[in-house]
Amino acid sequence: MDSPTADIAAETLLDLIPYGEEIDPLALSVLAANLQAVVGLRTCIRPFRDHPEEAFIPTRYQFDAVKVLDDLCREKEGALFRMGVIQRDLCIPILTYVYGESQLGGHTAVISLHRLHHIDRQVYYERGAKIAIHEAGHLLGLEHCREPGCLMRFSKQLEQLDLLPMRFCPACEYEIARLLKKAIQNRH
Amino acid sequence: MTRSMHIMVVDDEETICVALSAWLTKEGYSVETASSGQEALNRLEKKHYDLYLVDFKMPGMDGLQLVAEIKRRQPDAAIIMITAHGSIQSAVEAMKRGAIDYLCKPFDPEELSLLMERVAAAKTIQQAEVPVVDQWDTSRQASWGGIVGQSEALRLVLNEIEEVAPTSAPVLITGETGTGKDLLALAIHMRSEQAQGPFVAINCGAQSETLLESELFGHERGAFTGAVKARRGRLEMAGTGTLFLDEIGEISPKMQVNLLRVLEEKKLCRLGGNQPIDVDFRLVSATHKDLNQLMREEQFREDFFYRINVLTIHIPPLRERLEDVPVLADFFLQKYAQETGKPVEGLTPRAVEILMGYSWPGNVRELRNVIERVVVIARGRMIGADELSFLKVYGGGTRSGPAATLKEAEIQHLQNVLESCDWSITQAAKMLDIDRVTLSRKMKRFNIKRP
Ligand SMILES: [Zn+2]
Ligand SMILES: [Zn+2]
């Protein structure tokens, strides 16, 4: 059995890269499962690695998301898409914080679990999965969507994020499927 | 109105420019950056932007000077000043010179998002009001409040508008998508007794039912999760002006009852509120659907229909008034040539022939998009048959016999456009000037699938 389609199906499309050993392994499993189920990205959890120190901004006590993306970009090995996961707070120079950052239509993304805390662990995992799926949508090239029940909608607050179902609207879902197919084709 | 905003970010720090434009691009805006005030002004010579985000502290021309210079060249420009924390004084100074707001960096994503929503909303209202009024006074011969044409059919429509405008009776405008029903509604408003009041437009087909309800009626604080502040609805905003309900065929029977009550009692309550608010607007509605058919299917209430349909105006599709095509094409060509700064002067006779041989299922809006596209790709002073060669792909239908019904034409057109952009819904929606959700609904309804 070495038909090309079987090859593609078995190939890892997204590497989930945990920065710092304090990350809850169960959270990583939930992220991977949802990325696979909702976006259709076969996901692999890579070993823990150290915090990206060169991205640390001492005056803000936060990590610069753009620099983390640079770090992930430099990597030669690995899957088509790479998503960093960090337990510490992320920001970009102009914004006080971000839940995640990604290259629109690019290859790398990073998300932070720092601000997603909830007394109910289940809610915490779901928030992480929603952020990861949203950033994966950007990776494939999707912009924000105005539909109320779509994960590509920009959530101004966590409460809004909590109200979203774990899926895209039909229009985004269609685009995801199309763009994913295209991304895989271009790779081969 | 679905067109996205063009934004210019001016900052000497590259990281700020990159971060801001990346964020705004994901929000669906089209963004350009400039690293100095002078560069921004040079670009402004060629093209006007809807919004400028200007950093206060820059070497050379500083933010304050730039605000004044932009305002001098483009008085309607919206400008937001970006300042460092602890320099509120400079922000206040900027607002005195015409900036609409300011942000202290680093700012909250939520704050930025709310501000952008506010600017976009203000822009929509401005777009509906200002440019058309401008054209009114300085009107070229063939242009009448942004309505352009020379056909007998259009002249009859304009006569009807002159007649119905001064009365306060509700008007229903019927016509295919893209015929410019919104411009007719605005024309009615401008010539009516309500002209002093606001013109408030809303597309009933563009949002979900719950969202539409709160858009129309507004809500009190805490009326539902997420209603952190009380908000006025469109009905309330219309006040003593004109309310324009586009795509009225899309609203649910339940909403029809709610609206009917407002029209009869001239009072409404916000969602979650019980204080009646007086309203006295004139209603103009529009639809591309056959409301009689919807009534037979019990999708549209008869009592509501007679309420909104006291006077009717029908605007014929572009293919039934092809004489308007050359004038419209020329009007849009001048407009886009000016906007893009390209030295395009006109169309060759052969190009006009091609345009007049096409059936324009997307009507004036499609013609506008086609002209915008050819101006962008044009290389010479005249636009010829070559630049219009992409139209032949669409025209392929003529050989296999023209589409018989509107529905067939729509399906054919959707397929052609999707085909031409490799079945990207995002791009096709942009070309068709509708949103992605509407397009995907249409594809589902007509069972259009990628072959
Ligand atoms: Zn996003
Ligand atoms: Zn969506």
What count of domains describes the coordinates of chain B?
3
* Overall pLDDT score of chain B: 82
Spans of at least 5 consecutive residues with low confidence of chain A: 1-9
Which architecture of the largest domain in chain B would the CATH scheme give at its second level?
Answer: 3-Layer(aba) Sandwich
Main sheet characteristics of chain B:
5 strands, parallel
Helix content of chain A: 25-40%
| Tally of individual helices of chain A | 6
Ligand identities: zinc ion
Low-confidence stretches of chain B: 128-143, 393-402
The CATH topology of the largest domain in chain B turns out to be Rossmann fold
| CATH topology value of chain A | Collagenase (Catalytic Domain)
Any idea what the shape of chain A is? globular
What descriptive keywords fit this protein?
heterodimer; A: 188 residues; alpha/beta; Collagenase (Catalytic Domain); 5-stranded mixed sheet; 9 strands; 19% strand; globular; B: 451 residues; Rossmann fold; Helicase, Ruva Protein, domain 3; 5-stranded parallel sheet; 19 helices; 15% strand; binds zinc ion
Give your account of this protein's structure:
The complex is a heterodimer of chains A (188) and B (451). Chain A has helices at 4-10, 25-39, 65-73, 121-140, 158-163, 170-187, and strands at 14-19, 43-45, 56-57, 62-64, 81-86, 90-92, 95-98, 100-102, 108-112. Chain A is an alpha/beta fold and 188 residues long. Chain A has a single domain, classed as Collagenase (Catalytic Domain) (3-Layer(aba) Sandwich). In chain A, helix 2 packs across helix 4. The longest helix of chain A is centred in the C-terminal third of the chain and has 20 residues, at 121-140. The two termini of chain A are 19 Å apart. Mean pLDDT of chain A is 90; it is low at 1-9. Helix content of chain B is 48%, strand content 15%. Chain B is built from 19 helices and 18 strands. Chain B is globular, with a radius of gyration of 23 Å. Mean pLDDT of chain B is 82; it is low at 128-143 and 393-402. Residues 145, 147, 150, 152, 168-169, 171-172 of chain A line the site of one zinc ion.
